[in-house]
Write a structure and sequence with these properties.
- The complex is a heterodimer of chains A (370) and B (210).
- Helix content of chain A is 36%, strand content 24%.
- Chain A has 370 residues and is α/β, with parallel strands linked by helices.
- Chain A has 15 helices and 16 strands.
- The two termini of chain A are 38 Å apart.
- Chain B has 210 residues and is an all-alpha fold.
- Chain B has a single domain, classed as MetI-like fold, CATH 1.10.3720.
- In chain B, 80% of the residues lie in helices and 0% in strands.
- Chain B has eight helices and no strands.
- In chain B, helix 1 runs antiparallel to helix 6 and helix 2 crosses helix 4.
- The longest helix of chain B has 38 residues.
- The chains are: A alpha/beta (370), B mainly alpha (210).
- At the A-B interface, helix 2 and helix 4 of A face helix 5 and helix 6 of B.
Chain lengths: 370, 210
Protein backbone atom coordinates (compact mmCIF):
# COMPACT_ATOMS: atom_id res chain seq x y z
CA UNK A 1 0.00 0.00 0.00
CA UNK A 2 2.57 2.55 1.12
CA UNK A 3 6.24 1.75 0.69
CA UNK A 4 9.37 3.80 1.37
CA UNK A 5 12.53 2.61 -0.34
CA UNK A 6 15.87 4.01 0.81
CA UNK A 7 14.50 7.52 1.33
CA UNK A 8 17.04 10.12 2.48
CA UNK A 9 16.90 13.85 3.07
CA UNK A 10 19.65 16.27 4.05
CA UNK A 11 19.34 19.96 4.91
CA UNK A 12 22.79 21.48 4.53
CA UNK A 13 25.00 19.22 6.59
CA UNK A 14 22.20 17.88 8.74
CA UNK A 15 20.81 14.49 7.87
CA UNK A 16 17.06 14.63 8.41
CA UNK A 17 16.24 11.18 7.11
CA UNK A 18 18.84 8.51 6.65
CA UNK A 19 17.95 5.72 4.26
CA UNK A 20 14.42 4.99 5.47
CA UNK A 21 12.65 1.90 4.19
CA UNK A 22 9.36 0.48 5.42
CA UNK A 23 5.99 -0.70 4.24
CA UNK A 24 2.49 -0.10 5.55
CA UNK A 25 -0.34 -2.43 4.58
CA UNK A 26 -3.74 -1.34 3.39
CA UNK A 27 -6.15 -0.57 6.21
CA UNK A 28 -3.38 -0.33 8.78
CA UNK A 29 -3.23 2.37 11.42
CA UNK A 30 0.48 3.24 11.48
CA UNK A 31 1.72 5.52 14.23
CA UNK A 32 5.10 7.24 13.96
CA UNK A 33 6.65 8.20 17.26
CA UNK A 34 10.00 9.38 18.52
CA UNK A 35 11.77 12.31 20.16
CA UNK A 36 11.36 15.71 18.52
CA UNK A 37 13.56 16.15 15.48
CA UNK A 38 13.58 12.41 14.80
CA UNK A 39 12.12 12.90 11.32
CA UNK A 40 8.60 11.57 11.91
CA UNK A 41 6.78 14.65 10.62
CA UNK A 42 9.19 14.92 7.69
CA UNK A 43 8.40 11.33 6.78
CA UNK A 44 4.67 12.07 6.91
CA UNK A 45 4.96 15.17 4.74
CA UNK A 46 6.85 13.24 2.11
CA UNK A 47 3.81 11.06 1.54
CA UNK A 48 1.81 13.99 0.09
CA UNK A 49 4.94 15.60 -1.36
CA UNK A 50 4.92 18.63 0.90
CA UNK A 51 8.59 17.68 1.31
CA UNK A 52 10.67 16.06 -1.42
CA UNK A 53 13.29 13.44 -0.60
CA UNK A 54 16.86 13.87 -1.90
CA UNK A 55 16.99 10.24 -2.88
CA UNK A 56 14.91 7.09 -2.70
CA UNK A 57 11.39 6.28 -3.78
CA UNK A 58 7.96 6.32 -2.20
CA UNK A 59 5.29 4.05 -3.64
CA UNK A 60 1.58 4.43 -3.05
CA UNK A 61 -0.39 1.46 -4.35
CA UNK A 62 2.64 0.45 -6.36
CA UNK A 63 2.98 3.81 -8.08
CA UNK A 64 6.01 6.03 -7.52
CA UNK A 65 4.49 9.24 -6.14
CA UNK A 66 7.24 11.32 -7.76
CA UNK A 67 5.55 10.54 -11.07
CA UNK A 68 2.10 11.68 -9.88
CA UNK A 69 1.00 15.32 -10.14
CA UNK A 70 1.52 16.71 -6.67
CA UNK A 71 -1.84 18.48 -6.55
CA UNK A 72 -3.70 15.38 -7.65
CA UNK A 73 -1.76 13.37 -5.09
CA UNK A 74 -2.70 15.74 -2.26
CA UNK A 75 -6.34 15.77 -3.27
CA UNK A 76 -6.35 12.01 -2.92
CA UNK A 77 -4.56 12.02 0.41
CA UNK A 78 -6.29 13.24 3.55
CA UNK A 79 -4.28 15.65 5.67
CA UNK A 80 -4.96 16.67 9.26
CA UNK A 81 -2.62 19.04 11.09
CA UNK A 82 -2.05 19.91 14.73
CA UNK A 83 -3.13 23.55 14.32
CA UNK A 84 -6.35 22.26 12.72
CA UNK A 85 -6.17 24.92 9.96
CA UNK A 86 -9.87 25.15 9.13
CA UNK A 87 -10.28 28.12 6.81
CA UNK A 88 -11.92 30.82 8.95
CA UNK A 89 -13.49 32.47 5.91
CA UNK A 90 -15.47 29.34 5.08
CA UNK A 91 -18.36 27.64 6.84
CA UNK A 92 -18.12 24.10 8.15
CA UNK A 93 -19.82 22.82 5.01
CA UNK A 94 -17.48 24.77 2.75
CA UNK A 95 -14.46 23.58 4.70
CA UNK A 96 -15.53 19.96 4.36
CA UNK A 97 -16.06 20.42 0.65
CA UNK A 98 -12.72 22.04 -0.12
CA UNK A 99 -11.23 18.95 -1.72
CA UNK A 100 -14.39 17.68 -3.47
CA UNK A 101 -14.72 21.17 -4.97
CA UNK A 102 -11.10 21.12 -6.15
CA UNK A 103 -11.94 17.79 -7.79
CA UNK A 104 -14.91 19.56 -9.42
CA UNK A 105 -17.48 17.16 -8.03
CA UNK A 106 -21.09 18.22 -8.63
CA UNK A 107 -22.75 20.33 -5.97
CA UNK A 108 -25.39 17.82 -4.88
CA UNK A 109 -22.71 15.20 -4.35
CA UNK A 110 -20.78 17.67 -2.17
CA UNK A 111 -23.91 18.41 -0.13
CA UNK A 112 -24.51 14.70 0.35
CA UNK A 113 -20.94 14.30 1.62
CA UNK A 114 -21.42 17.07 4.18
CA UNK A 115 -24.64 15.44 5.41
CA UNK A 116 -23.12 11.98 5.62
CA UNK A 117 -19.93 13.04 7.33
CA UNK A 118 -21.60 15.27 9.92
CA UNK A 119 -23.99 12.41 10.63
CA UNK A 120 -21.10 10.09 11.17
CA UNK A 121 -19.59 12.22 13.94
CA UNK A 122 -23.04 13.05 15.31
CA UNK A 123 -22.91 16.79 14.71
CA UNK A 124 -26.43 17.76 13.53
CA UNK A 125 -26.28 19.24 10.02
CA UNK A 126 -28.76 22.03 10.68
CA UNK A 127 -26.85 23.17 13.70
CA UNK A 128 -23.29 22.96 12.42
CA UNK A 129 -23.05 23.04 8.61
CA UNK A 130 -23.33 26.81 8.37
CA UNK A 131 -21.26 27.73 11.40
CA UNK A 132 -17.87 29.30 11.01
CA UNK A 133 -14.86 27.59 12.60
CA UNK A 134 -14.38 30.45 15.05
CA UNK A 135 -17.80 29.74 16.53
CA UNK A 136 -16.82 26.25 17.62
CA UNK A 137 -14.62 24.68 20.29
CA UNK A 138 -11.20 23.26 19.47
CA UNK A 139 -12.47 19.71 19.70
CA UNK A 140 -15.38 20.36 17.32
CA UNK A 141 -13.02 22.17 14.95
CA UNK A 142 -10.67 19.23 14.80
CA UNK A 143 -13.62 16.89 14.18
CA UNK A 144 -14.37 19.01 11.14
CA UNK A 145 -10.65 19.00 10.29
CA UNK A 146 -10.82 15.21 10.16
CA UNK A 147 -14.00 15.28 8.08
CA UNK A 148 -12.32 17.65 5.63
CA UNK A 149 -9.53 15.11 5.27
CA UNK A 150 -12.03 12.31 4.68
CA UNK A 151 -14.38 14.21 2.35
CA UNK A 152 -13.02 12.99 -0.97
CA UNK A 153 -12.71 9.47 0.50
CA UNK A 154 -8.95 9.22 0.09
CA UNK A 155 -7.44 5.78 0.66
CA UNK A 156 -4.71 7.24 2.87
CA UNK A 157 -5.12 9.84 5.60
CA UNK A 158 -2.10 11.62 7.10
CA UNK A 159 -2.42 13.01 10.61
CA UNK A 160 0.31 15.18 12.07
CA UNK A 161 -0.14 15.29 15.86
CA UNK A 162 -3.83 16.06 15.35
CA UNK A 163 -4.84 15.94 19.01
CA UNK A 164 -1.86 17.34 20.84
CA UNK A 165 -3.38 20.82 21.18
CA UNK A 166 -6.62 19.51 22.69
CA UNK A 167 -7.49 18.99 26.34
CA UNK A 168 -7.18 15.38 27.60
CA UNK A 169 -10.94 14.65 27.65
CA UNK A 170 -11.52 15.89 24.12
CA UNK A 171 -8.38 14.12 22.95
CA UNK A 172 -9.64 10.83 24.35
CA UNK A 173 -13.02 11.08 22.62
CA UNK A 174 -11.46 12.10 19.30
CA UNK A 175 -9.00 9.21 19.51
CA UNK A 176 -11.88 6.78 19.91
CA UNK A 177 -13.73 8.46 17.07
CA UNK A 178 -10.78 8.29 14.71
CA UNK A 179 -10.19 4.64 15.53
CA UNK A 180 -13.87 3.92 14.85
CA UNK A 181 -13.89 5.86 11.59
CA UNK A 182 -10.72 4.11 10.48
CA UNK A 183 -12.19 0.70 11.09
CA UNK A 184 -15.57 1.59 9.62
CA UNK A 185 -14.14 3.12 6.46
CA UNK A 186 -11.10 0.83 6.23
CA UNK A 187 -8.64 3.69 5.74
CA UNK A 188 -4.91 3.47 5.87
CA UNK A 189 -3.84 6.06 8.41
CA UNK A 190 -0.37 7.43 8.95
CA UNK A 191 -0.36 9.19 12.29
CA UNK A 192 2.45 11.14 13.95
CA UNK A 193 2.51 11.66 17.70
CA UNK A 194 4.90 12.11 20.59
CA UNK A 195 2.45 10.55 23.03
CA UNK A 196 3.15 6.85 23.61
CA UNK A 197 -0.24 6.26 25.21
CA UNK A 198 -1.93 7.53 22.06
CA UNK A 199 0.33 5.34 19.92
CA UNK A 200 -0.41 2.23 21.98
CA UNK A 201 -4.16 2.87 21.90
CA UNK A 202 -4.52 3.59 18.22
CA UNK A 203 -1.80 1.79 16.33
CA UNK A 204 -1.87 -1.44 14.43
CA UNK A 205 1.81 -0.88 13.95
CA UNK A 206 4.15 1.55 15.71
CA UNK A 207 7.17 2.97 13.89
CA UNK A 208 9.73 4.28 16.34
CA UNK A 209 12.18 6.78 14.85
CA UNK A 210 15.27 8.50 16.16
CA UNK A 211 17.75 10.79 14.43
CA UNK A 212 16.32 10.18 11.00
CA UNK A 213 16.31 6.43 11.26
CA UNK A 214 13.74 3.80 12.05
CA UNK A 215 14.65 2.06 15.28
CA UNK A 216 11.80 -0.43 15.50
CA UNK A 217 8.62 -1.28 13.63
CA UNK A 218 6.26 -3.48 15.57
CA UNK A 219 2.67 -3.88 16.69
CA UNK A 220 2.04 -2.29 20.13
CA UNK A 221 2.00 -5.60 21.99
CA UNK A 222 5.28 -6.66 20.48
CA UNK A 223 6.92 -3.32 21.19
CA UNK A 224 5.77 -3.52 24.81
CA UNK A 225 7.10 -7.01 25.14
CA UNK A 226 10.39 -6.54 23.38
CA UNK A 227 11.44 -2.90 23.03
CA UNK A 228 14.49 -2.79 20.77
CA UNK A 229 16.42 -0.13 22.66
CA UNK A 230 16.56 1.52 26.08
CA UNK A 231 15.21 4.68 24.46
CA UNK A 232 12.04 2.90 23.38
CA UNK A 233 11.79 1.37 26.84
CA UNK A 234 11.95 4.87 28.27
CA UNK A 235 9.21 6.05 25.90
CA UNK A 236 7.05 3.10 26.86
CA UNK A 237 7.64 4.05 30.50
CA UNK A 238 4.76 3.09 32.73
CA UNK A 239 2.91 1.36 29.92
CA UNK A 240 5.49 -1.38 29.83
CA UNK A 241 4.01 -4.57 31.13
CA UNK A 242 6.19 -5.61 33.97
CA UNK A 243 6.02 -9.28 34.65
CA UNK A 244 2.67 -10.73 35.35
CA UNK A 245 2.21 -10.17 39.12
CA UNK A 246 0.90 -13.68 39.61
CA UNK A 247 4.10 -15.23 38.31
CA UNK A 248 6.53 -13.17 40.39
CA UNK A 249 8.87 -15.13 42.59
CA UNK A 250 10.12 -14.21 46.00
CA UNK A 251 13.80 -13.90 44.99
CA UNK A 252 12.93 -10.83 42.89
CA UNK A 253 12.13 -8.86 46.02
CA UNK A 254 14.27 -10.32 48.79
CA UNK A 255 17.07 -8.44 50.45
CA UNK A 256 20.45 -10.02 49.87
CA UNK A 257 23.82 -9.59 51.53
CA UNK A 258 22.48 -10.89 54.84
CA UNK A 259 24.92 -11.25 57.77
CA UNK A 260 25.46 -14.86 58.80
CA UNK A 261 27.50 -16.51 61.48
CA UNK A 262 28.79 -20.10 61.77
CA UNK A 263 27.21 -22.14 64.61
CA UNK A 264 30.53 -22.99 66.27
CA UNK A 265 31.58 -19.36 66.77
CA UNK A 266 31.86 -17.84 70.19
CA UNK A 267 29.42 -15.48 71.88
CA UNK A 268 31.83 -12.56 71.81
CA UNK A 269 32.44 -12.75 68.09
CA UNK A 270 28.72 -12.98 67.52
CA UNK A 271 27.97 -9.91 69.62
CA UNK A 272 30.69 -7.81 68.00
CA UNK A 273 29.36 -8.81 64.60
CA UNK A 274 25.87 -7.67 65.60
CA UNK A 275 27.25 -4.36 66.83
CA UNK A 276 29.31 -3.90 63.73
CA UNK A 277 26.36 -4.42 61.39
CA UNK A 278 23.87 -2.76 63.74
CA UNK A 279 21.43 -5.69 63.79
CA UNK A 280 19.82 -7.62 66.65
CA UNK A 281 19.63 -11.02 64.95
CA UNK A 282 22.04 -13.07 62.89
CA UNK A 283 21.34 -16.05 60.63
CA UNK A 284 23.27 -19.10 61.75
CA UNK A 285 24.80 -21.50 59.19
CA UNK A 286 26.78 -24.76 59.49
CA UNK A 287 30.18 -25.60 58.04
CA UNK A 288 28.68 -26.15 54.58
CA UNK A 289 26.93 -22.75 54.95
CA UNK A 290 23.53 -24.45 55.25
CA UNK A 291 20.94 -22.53 57.19
CA UNK A 292 20.44 -23.66 60.80
CA UNK A 293 18.33 -20.93 62.41
CA UNK A 294 18.69 -17.53 64.00
CA UNK A 295 20.33 -16.13 67.05
CA UNK A 296 19.13 -12.96 68.74
CA UNK A 297 20.83 -10.51 71.07
CA UNK A 298 18.03 -11.05 73.62
CA UNK A 299 18.84 -14.74 73.94
CA UNK A 300 22.54 -14.02 74.23
CA UNK A 301 21.92 -11.55 77.04
CA UNK A 302 19.70 -14.01 78.86
CA UNK A 303 21.86 -17.15 78.69
CA UNK A 304 25.10 -16.13 77.05
CA UNK A 305 27.10 -16.45 80.28
CA UNK A 306 26.50 -20.24 80.51
CA UNK A 307 27.48 -21.23 76.97
CA UNK A 308 30.66 -20.59 75.01
CA UNK A 309 29.44 -21.03 71.45
CA UNK A 310 26.13 -19.90 70.01
CA UNK A 311 25.05 -23.39 68.95
CA UNK A 312 22.65 -23.98 71.86
CA UNK A 313 20.98 -20.57 71.44
CA UNK A 314 19.91 -21.07 67.84
CA UNK A 315 16.18 -20.94 67.29
CA UNK A 316 14.29 -22.25 64.27
CA UNK A 317 11.07 -20.26 64.69
CA UNK A 318 11.50 -17.97 61.66
CA UNK A 319 9.53 -19.26 58.66
CA UNK A 320 11.62 -20.45 55.74
CA UNK A 321 10.81 -20.25 52.03
CA UNK A 322 12.83 -21.08 48.94
CA UNK A 323 13.90 -19.05 45.90
CA UNK A 324 11.45 -19.65 43.11
CA UNK A 325 8.49 -19.74 45.51
CA UNK A 326 5.53 -17.62 44.50
CA UNK A 327 5.93 -14.09 45.84
CA UNK A 328 2.30 -13.72 46.80
CA UNK A 329 2.25 -16.94 48.84
CA UNK A 330 5.41 -15.84 50.63
CA UNK A 331 3.95 -12.45 51.44
CA UNK A 332 0.84 -14.09 52.85
CA UNK A 333 3.01 -16.33 54.99
CA UNK A 334 4.96 -13.31 56.23
CA UNK A 335 1.80 -11.51 57.27
CA UNK A 336 0.15 -14.50 58.95
CA UNK A 337 3.27 -15.64 60.81
CA UNK A 338 3.68 -12.33 62.58
CA UNK A 339 7.45 -12.62 62.21
CA UNK A 340 9.38 -9.51 61.13
CA UNK A 341 10.92 -11.39 58.19
CA UNK A 342 11.14 -14.62 56.22
CA UNK A 343 14.39 -16.41 55.40
CA UNK A 344 14.82 -17.31 51.77
CA UNK A 345 16.99 -20.33 51.05
CA UNK A 346 18.55 -21.61 47.88
CA UNK A 347 18.01 -25.19 46.79
CA UNK A 348 21.13 -26.34 48.62
CA UNK A 349 19.69 -24.86 51.84
CA UNK A 350 22.24 -22.00 51.94
CA UNK A 351 20.95 -18.50 52.67
CA UNK A 352 19.82 -16.45 49.67
CA UNK A 353 18.28 -13.48 51.52
CA UNK A 354 15.37 -12.36 53.61
CA UNK A 355 11.97 -10.81 52.86
CA UNK A 356 10.82 -8.04 55.20
CA UNK A 357 7.62 -6.05 55.22
CA UNK A 358 9.58 -3.19 53.67
CA UNK A 359 10.64 -5.26 50.69
CA UNK A 360 7.06 -6.41 50.33
CA UNK A 361 5.77 -2.84 50.29
CA UNK A 362 8.30 -1.72 47.69
CA UNK A 363 7.46 -4.73 45.52
CA UNK A 364 3.79 -3.81 45.58
CA UNK A 365 4.56 -0.19 44.88
CA UNK A 366 6.60 -1.19 41.86
CA UNK A 367 3.70 -3.21 40.49
CA UNK A 368 1.28 -0.37 41.03
CA UNK A 369 3.22 2.62 39.88
CA UNK A 370 6.13 1.19 37.90
CA UNK B 1 -26.03 81.95 -7.12
CA UNK B 2 -27.03 79.26 -9.57
CA UNK B 3 -23.84 79.93 -11.48
CA UNK B 4 -21.78 79.48 -8.33
CA UNK B 5 -23.55 76.21 -7.48
CA UNK B 6 -23.00 74.99 -11.00
CA UNK B 7 -19.29 75.78 -10.88
CA UNK B 8 -18.98 74.01 -7.53
CA UNK B 9 -20.82 70.98 -8.88
CA UNK B 10 -18.66 70.91 -11.99
CA UNK B 11 -15.48 71.18 -9.95
CA UNK B 12 -16.73 68.49 -7.56
CA UNK B 13 -17.58 66.19 -10.44
CA UNK B 14 -14.13 66.63 -11.94
CA UNK B 15 -12.54 66.16 -8.53
CA UNK B 16 -14.55 62.99 -7.93
CA UNK B 17 -13.62 61.79 -11.40
CA UNK B 18 -9.90 62.20 -10.71
CA UNK B 19 -10.25 60.51 -7.35
CA UNK B 20 -12.22 57.52 -8.58
CA UNK B 21 -10.03 56.92 -11.62
CA UNK B 22 -6.82 57.26 -9.65
CA UNK B 23 -8.00 55.10 -6.74
CA UNK B 24 -9.17 52.45 -9.19
CA UNK B 25 -5.84 52.42 -11.02
CA UNK B 26 -3.91 52.69 -7.77
CA UNK B 27 -5.87 49.87 -6.14
CA UNK B 28 -5.39 47.56 -9.11
CA UNK B 29 -1.68 48.32 -9.32
CA UNK B 30 -1.23 48.11 -5.56
CA UNK B 31 -3.07 44.82 -5.28
CA UNK B 32 -1.17 43.31 -8.20
CA UNK B 33 2.26 44.50 -7.06
CA UNK B 34 1.43 43.60 -3.48
CA UNK B 35 0.59 40.04 -4.47
CA UNK B 36 3.81 39.83 -6.51
CA UNK B 37 5.90 41.20 -3.66
CA UNK B 38 4.34 38.89 -1.10
CA UNK B 39 5.52 35.95 -3.26
CA UNK B 40 9.06 37.36 -3.30
CA UNK B 41 9.94 37.82 0.35
CA UNK B 42 13.58 38.76 -0.22
CA UNK B 43 12.74 41.42 -2.80
CA UNK B 44 9.93 42.85 -0.70
CA UNK B 45 12.23 43.15 2.30
CA UNK B 46 14.19 45.81 0.40
CA UNK B 47 11.46 47.21 -1.80
CA UNK B 48 8.76 47.90 0.77
CA UNK B 49 10.91 50.29 2.88
CA UNK B 50 12.07 51.96 -0.34
CA UNK B 51 8.47 52.48 -1.41
CA UNK B 52 7.66 53.92 2.00
CA UNK B 53 10.37 56.51 1.47
CA UNK B 54 9.01 57.35 -1.99
CA UNK B 55 5.62 57.74 -0.38
CA UNK B 56 6.97 60.63 1.71
CA UNK B 57 7.97 62.70 -1.34
CA UNK B 58 5.41 65.52 -1.34
CA UNK B 59 2.81 65.19 -4.07
CA UNK B 60 3.44 68.74 -5.16
CA UNK B 61 7.08 67.88 -5.95
CA UNK B 62 6.12 64.74 -7.80
CA UNK B 63 3.53 66.49 -9.95
CA UNK B 64 6.11 69.18 -10.66
CA UNK B 65 8.66 66.64 -11.85
CA UNK B 66 6.11 64.73 -13.89
CA UNK B 67 4.95 68.02 -15.46
CA UNK B 68 8.35 68.27 -17.16
CA UNK B 69 7.62 65.06 -19.07
CA UNK B 70 3.87 65.01 -19.63
CA UNK B 71 3.02 68.70 -19.61
CA UNK B 72 -0.24 70.40 -18.61
CA UNK B 73 -2.53 67.43 -19.26
CA UNK B 74 -4.94 65.40 -17.14
CA UNK B 75 -2.50 62.49 -17.71
CA UNK B 76 0.01 64.18 -15.41
CA UNK B 77 -2.56 64.34 -12.62
CA UNK B 78 -3.80 60.82 -13.14
CA UNK B 79 -0.33 59.25 -13.26
CA UNK B 80 0.84 61.10 -10.17
CA UNK B 81 -2.31 60.49 -8.09
CA UNK B 82 -2.56 56.84 -9.17
CA UNK B 83 0.96 56.21 -7.94
CA UNK B 84 0.16 57.86 -4.62
CA UNK B 85 -3.12 55.96 -4.36
CA UNK B 86 -1.18 52.76 -4.94
CA UNK B 87 1.11 53.00 -1.90
CA UNK B 88 -1.34 52.29 0.94
CA UNK B 89 -2.96 49.44 -0.98
CA UNK B 90 0.41 47.92 -1.90
CA UNK B 91 1.70 48.11 1.63
CA UNK B 92 -1.45 46.69 3.17
CA UNK B 93 -1.66 43.91 0.61
CA UNK B 94 1.88 42.78 1.41
CA UNK B 95 1.22 43.07 5.16
CA UNK B 96 -2.10 41.29 4.87
CA UNK B 97 -0.85 38.41 2.76
CA UNK B 98 2.30 37.94 4.83
CA UNK B 99 0.14 37.98 7.94
CA UNK B 100 -1.95 34.97 6.89
CA UNK B 101 -1.32 32.33 9.56
CA UNK B 102 0.97 29.51 8.42
CA UNK B 103 -1.60 26.89 9.45
CA UNK B 104 -4.02 28.03 6.74
CA UNK B 105 -1.33 28.03 4.06
CA UNK B 106 -0.22 24.58 5.18
CA UNK B 107 -3.79 23.27 5.20
CA UNK B 108 -4.41 24.76 1.75
CA UNK B 109 -1.27 23.11 0.39
CA UNK B 110 -2.19 19.83 2.03
CA UNK B 111 -5.66 19.94 0.46
CA UNK B 112 -4.05 20.09 -2.95
CA UNK B 113 -4.69 23.70 -3.90
CA UNK B 114 -2.46 25.21 -6.56
CA UNK B 115 -0.80 28.62 -6.20
CA UNK B 116 -3.71 30.54 -7.69
CA UNK B 117 -6.34 28.59 -5.74
CA UNK B 118 -4.46 29.19 -2.51
CA UNK B 119 -4.29 32.89 -3.29
CA UNK B 120 -7.91 33.31 -4.34
CA UNK B 121 -9.66 30.97 -1.93
CA UNK B 122 -7.60 31.34 1.21
CA UNK B 123 -4.93 34.02 1.30
CA UNK B 124 -6.75 36.96 -0.31
CA UNK B 125 -10.00 36.43 1.64
CA UNK B 126 -8.04 36.25 4.87
CA UNK B 127 -6.00 39.35 3.98
CA UNK B 128 -9.09 41.23 2.80
CA UNK B 129 -9.76 43.28 5.95
CA UNK B 130 -6.20 44.67 5.80
CA UNK B 131 -6.35 45.29 2.05
CA UNK B 132 -9.64 47.16 2.30
CA UNK B 133 -8.10 49.20 5.11
CA UNK B 134 -5.46 50.24 2.57
CA UNK B 135 -8.14 51.14 0.05
CA UNK B 136 -9.85 53.37 2.58
CA UNK B 137 -6.64 55.26 3.30
CA UNK B 138 -5.95 55.53 -0.39
CA UNK B 139 -9.42 56.94 -1.21
CA UNK B 140 -9.37 59.53 1.55
CA UNK B 141 -5.81 60.66 0.75
CA UNK B 142 -6.49 60.90 -2.97
CA UNK B 143 -9.39 63.29 -2.37
CA UNK B 144 -6.99 65.72 -0.74
CA UNK B 145 -4.16 65.14 -3.22
CA UNK B 146 -6.51 65.79 -6.15
CA UNK B 147 -6.52 69.43 -5.04
CA UNK B 148 -3.05 69.56 -6.62
CA UNK B 149 -4.57 69.12 -10.10
CA UNK B 150 -5.39 72.82 -10.08
CA UNK B 151 -1.69 73.59 -9.72
CA UNK B 152 -1.15 72.65 -13.35
CA UNK B 153 -4.49 74.04 -14.49
CA UNK B 154 -6.42 70.78 -14.53
CA UNK B 155 -9.44 71.98 -12.56
CA UNK B 156 -11.20 70.24 -9.71
CA UNK B 157 -11.93 71.69 -6.28
CA UNK B 158 -8.33 72.85 -6.09
CA UNK B 159 -9.21 75.75 -8.40
CA UNK B 160 -11.19 77.45 -5.63
CA UNK B 161 -8.55 76.74 -3.06
CA UNK B 162 -5.68 78.15 -5.16
CA UNK B 163 -7.67 81.20 -6.19
CA UNK B 164 -8.75 81.76 -2.61
CA UNK B 165 -5.21 81.46 -1.29
CA UNK B 166 -3.74 83.81 -3.89
CA UNK B 167 -6.51 86.43 -3.50
CA UNK B 168 -6.72 85.95 0.28
CA UNK B 169 -10.41 85.04 -0.04
CA UNK B 170 -11.48 82.65 2.74
CA UNK B 171 -14.94 82.05 1.31
CA UNK B 172 -13.35 80.82 -1.91
CA UNK B 173 -11.04 78.47 0.02
CA UNK B 174 -14.00 77.00 1.91
CA UNK B 175 -15.88 76.65 -1.35
CA UNK B 176 -13.21 74.13 -2.35
CA UNK B 177 -12.45 72.68 1.08
CA UNK B 178 -15.97 71.83 2.22
CA UNK B 179 -17.01 69.77 -0.84
CA UNK B 180 -13.62 68.01 -0.66
CA UNK B 181 -14.19 67.12 2.98
CA UNK B 182 -17.69 65.86 2.21
CA UNK B 183 -16.32 63.82 -0.69
CA UNK B 184 -13.72 62.24 1.58
CA UNK B 185 -16.43 61.32 4.11
CA UNK B 186 -18.69 59.85 1.44
CA UNK B 187 -15.89 57.78 -0.09
CA UNK B 188 -14.85 56.56 3.37
CA UNK B 189 -18.41 55.45 4.04
CA UNK B 190 -18.60 53.71 0.68
CA UNK B 191 -15.41 51.78 1.40
CA UNK B 192 -16.81 50.77 4.79
CA UNK B 193 -19.91 49.46 3.05
CA UNK B 194 -17.67 47.57 0.63
CA UNK B 195 -15.73 46.16 3.56
CA UNK B 196 -18.94 44.65 4.93
CA UNK B 197 -19.63 42.98 1.60
CA UNK B 198 -16.22 41.55 0.78
CA UNK B 199 -14.87 40.56 4.18
CA UNK B 200 -15.96 36.98 4.85
CA UNK B 201 -18.50 36.63 7.64
CA UNK B 202 -16.24 34.33 9.57
CA UNK B 203 -13.64 37.09 9.80
CA UNK B 204 -15.86 39.87 11.01
CA UNK B 205 -15.61 41.32 14.46
CA UNK B 206 -17.47 39.35 17.07
CA UNK B 207 -17.47 36.47 14.61
CA UNK B 208 -14.87 33.89 13.96
CA UNK B 209 -11.28 33.46 13.04
CA UNK B 210 -9.67 35.94 15.35
Amino acid sequence: MLRFEHVSLTYGTQKILNDISFEIQEGQFAVFIGPSGCGKTTTLKMINRLIQPDSGHIYLNGQDIASVDRYALRRHTGYVIQQIGLFPNMTVAQNICVVPKLLKWPKDKCDQIVHDLLDMVELPYDQYAHKYPGEMSGGQQQRIGILRALAASPPVVLMDEPFSALDPMTRRSLQLEVKNLQQKLNKTIVFVTHDMEEALDLADVIVFMDQGEIVQIAPPEEMLEAPATDQIKEFLGKHQVGHDPASLTVDQFMRTGIITVKEDRGINECVSRMQHHNVDTLLVVDKERRYQGTVSIADIRLTGHVVKSIGPLVRCTTPVVHTGDNAKACFEQLISSGCPYLVVLKEDETVAGIVTKTSMASAMAEQLWG
Amino acid sequence: MNELLLSILQATARHTGYTLVCVAIGFTLGLFLGICLSRLPTLSRYLVPLLSILNTVPGIVFIGVLYIFTGMTPATVIIALSIYAMFPVLKNTVTGLNGVDAQYKEAARGCGMGHLQRLLRVELPLAMPTIIGGLRLSAVYTVSWAVLAAMIGQGGLGDFVYQGVSSNNNALILQGAIPAAILALVLGTLVDALQKRVVPRGLRKGGAGE
